[in-house]
Amino acid sequence: MKEKEQDKRIFLSHGSGGKLMHDLIRDLFRKKFANKILDQLSDSAFIPEIIPEHNRLCFTTDSYVVNPLFFPGGDIGKLAVCGTINDLCMVGATPLYLSCGFILEEGLELDILEKITDSMAASAKEAHVSIVTGDVKVVEKNKADNVFINTSGIGLRKNSLKLGKEYIEPGDQILINGYIGDHGTAVISARKDFRLETDIQSDCAALTDLTRKILNKGNHIKFMRDPTRGGMATTLNEIAFDTGFGVQIREEDIPVREETRAACEILGLDPLYLANEGKLVIIVGKKEAQGILKLMQSHALGKESRIIGEIVSEPERKVIMKTPMGASRILDMLIGEQMPRIC
Amino acid sequence: MKEKEQDKRIFLSHGSGGKLMHDLIRDLFRKKFANKILDQLSDSAFIPEIIPEHNRLCFTTDSYVVNPLFFPGGDIGKLAVCGTINDLCMVGATPLYLSCGFILEEGLELDILEKITDSMAASAKEAHVSIVTGDVKVVEKNKADNVFINTSGIGLRKNSLKLGKEYIEPGDQILINGYIGDHGTAVISARKDFRLETDIQSDCAALTDLTRKILNKGNHIKFMRDPTRGGMATTLNEIAFDTGFGVQIREEDIPVREETRAACEILGLDPLYLANEGKLVIIVGKKEAQGILKLMQSHALGKESRIIGEIVSEPERKVIMKTPMGASRILDMLIGEQMPRIC
Questions:
Q1: Which candidate from A44, A61, A138 shows the least CB-CB separation from B93?
Q2: Counting one residue from A and one from B, how many pairs have CB atoms under 8 Å apart?
């Protein structure tokens, strides 16, 4: 029996709790995310993990509304898995389990949803996490935009970890694991209304392995944060504001790809404020900085790592960027909107 | 300084990761959901709870897209908190912590968002759970519908609990804690296009206290499920399908309010398929059924509890409803869509 074209789309009934929803869960989500915990299909997933002594549970959530759904280097599914994994990594936790909540627009092609779930499954597998519980809702045409995904994540963190903004002090070095601005540029250049032809790929990646190696090196790292929405400038401002210290960075040491810089110039954007999805800013004591840098550079996700600046006692709560010519520029937190729906 | 009217709305910039987003998080979400874990404002929340021995972590997620946002007896905020709490209650877990992810439509009035967060905060407080981590995204006008909320929840469940569909056997009694169909009817009657004047209130409520009291009574309960989307008929079909047994219910014992029945007749809906948000179906051994019924009836959320039927060995995987006249009707799982966006 040949399926009709219209049968391969999402109907409102796919979200009604009835037969179509059960079929979708069985034929798509359970198949793609296959694991024993998800297969329980109970109202909540039972987590078999025993929390070891001296460990603490970490819990995070993010919704993903990126437009377009597919962009060079990734898609909304990969983003939804990696983004939430990275939020757990940033606090030093090992990501273990994810939930996923889909909000689908009526009329969405099932092929698109399948591609997205394939991508989620592959990213989860690569990062050794399981998607153990989920939900799907459908809204009428023009009441959403194809697909929105929420993922929440839980992970485990050793209590002995000395990681937190309270450990930051003047003299500490600031590191980044590579080129900034790639994700934002890749997403924007994929939008039809821009028709910008670049080869830039999103840096979207799970940082689990890199952060684990850094943390295993010993208790040298003081703080990590992924510069996503608002970009590196916003993350540095958060650090300055939260610690009360100043942040000083050197413009020439900030890794920005030539193509990214060129695309940003055409679009009137600043790479310092563009979202990254596979980057982390690390604060580390002065003595340990070179060792951590070398370790990062030896990792596939850190080849272009750099020390970009340091924590200073003043000016308090400000981020100052030194230009190659010796001038200083204050980097504010992002005020307006560079581009909506970047993640 | 008088604020301009347009300042009291959500802009795309509220989701950009920059200053407006930080202000919104500080002035609204942190204020309303105030607790020390949320105040950490790190990439993931640290859960202070120590998992006691012989306990297991439970994890669940749900997105809420109900239309309209406010309806008699509740709103999307109350629903988002109670719905996810109930998913934890149904597996016998004590709900502890929630995440919340907002997807906001550009132009949303801040007053509306504040009312919703007030309602979430009140519902969370009443149910003794904390909202410990969150996220906010903003999409362009007509790319969402005012507000969508995802909540994920974690809770603790005793390993000794003998609760699960594998314990169900023929002869077991089926109980419900009161009138069905109220939530669906209240939401639909609140839609402008229906202009249906009824006094029906949604039954939206957290079932924590009721389920705790039932579980404390001893290990008599075999299974619980909240008949939300797809209604009671769908929940009973899931039970029949998953156990391989039959389900037989008596039409005259199913509690339906007269007003709900009347409204459903006008709208051509069936209360058996309408969503409930404060109801649970309980399966219990024959000997214990009366005791559990009395306990339920003594609780504010169970006054109208009834024994509505039983598990039978055949017909397998079918739900049969006996009418007062002695006829039998097969209740299928909901096939189409009674009404979209009921939760």
A1: A44
A2: 263
Inter-chain touch A47–B57, beta carbons under 8 Å: yes
Asked if residue B198 belongs to a domain, the reply is yes
Q: Does A148 touch chain B (CB under 8 A)?
A: yes
In the 8-state DSSP scheme, what is residue B90?
H
Per-residue pLDDT at A2: 47
* Contact indicator for A37, B91 with CB cutoff of 8 Å: no
Question: Which DSSP category does A17 fall into?
Answer: S
Q: Does A85 share its domain with A124?
A: yes
Model confidence over B268-324: pLDDT tens digits? 899 999 999 999 999 999 999 999 999 999 999 999 999 999 999 999 999 999 999
pLDDT band (50, 70, 90) for residue B267? confident
A30 reaches B (C-beta below 8 A): no
Q: Is B140 on the interface with A (CB under 8 A)?
A: yes
Distance from CA of B267 to the nearest CA of A (A): 17
The answer to the question of residue B47 being in a domain is yes
Segment B44-61 shows an average pLDDT of 87
Could you tell me if B276 and B207 are in contact, meaning their C-beta atoms sit under 8 angstroms apart?
no
Answer with the one of B114, B132, B158 that is the final residue of a domain. B158
Domain that holds residue A265: 165-330
Q: Among the three residues B158, B177, B201, which one is the final residue of a domain in this structure?
A: B158
Q: Which of residues 207-226 of B touch A (CB under 8 A)?
A: 225-226
Q: Which residues of chain A have pLDDT under 70?
A: 1-7, 219, 337-338
The reply to whether residue A144 touches residue B140, judged by beta carbons under 8 angstroms, is: no
pLDDT number for residue B115 = 97
Domain membership of residue A30 (yes or no) is no
Q: What is the CATH number of the domain that holds B77?
A: 3.30.1330.10
**What CATH code is carried by the domain that includes residue B198?**
3.90.650.10
| Cβ under 8 Å to B: A residues 228-247 | 228-231, 234, 238
> Domain check: are A207 and A59 in the same one?
no
Does A177 contact chain B (CB < 8 Å)? no
Q: Looking at B120-185, which runs of residues are DSSP E strands?
A: 130-139, 147-158, 173-176
DSSP-derived 3-state class of residue B71: strand
Instruction: Note whether A59 contacts B65, CB cutoff 8 Å.
Output: no
CA gap B194, B213 in Å, rounded? 39
The residues in B 273-312 lying below 8 A from A, measured between CB atoms, are: 273, 275
Residue B92 DSSP symbol: T
Backbone angles phi, psi at B238, to 5 degrees: -60, -40
CA distance A39 to chain B (A): 12
* Residues found in chain A: 343
Residue of B nearest to A338 (CA): B16
Q: Are residues B188 and B138 in the same domain?
A: no
Are A206 and A309 part of one and the same domain?
yes
pLDDT tens-place string over residues B190-232: 997 777 777 899 999 999 999 999 999 876 899 999 999 999 9
Q: What share of chain A is helix, strand, coil (3-state, %, to 5)?
A: 35, 25, 40
Write the ipTM: 0.95
Residue A337 belongs to some domain of the structure: no
Same domain, A196 and A321: yes
Are B105 and B146 in contact by the 8 Å Cβ rule? The answer is: yes
Residue-wise pLDDT for B74-127, tens only, equals: 999 999 999 999 999 999 999 999 999 999 999 999 999 999 999 999 999 999
Of A59, A137, A332, the CB nearest to B47: A59
Spell out which residues of chain B touch residue A152, defining contact as CB-CB under 8 Å.
Answer: 59, 61, 99, 101, 150, 152
- How many domains, chain A? 2
pLDDT tens-digit profile of B147-178? 999 999 999 999 999 999 999 999 999 999 99
User: Pick the residue with more confidence: B258 or B338?
Assistant: B258
Cβ neighbours for A18, distance < 8 A, ≥ 6 positions apart: B229, B230, B234, B273, B333, B334, B335, B336, B337
- Whether pLDDT at B337 is above 80: no
**A62 & A109 share domain:** yes
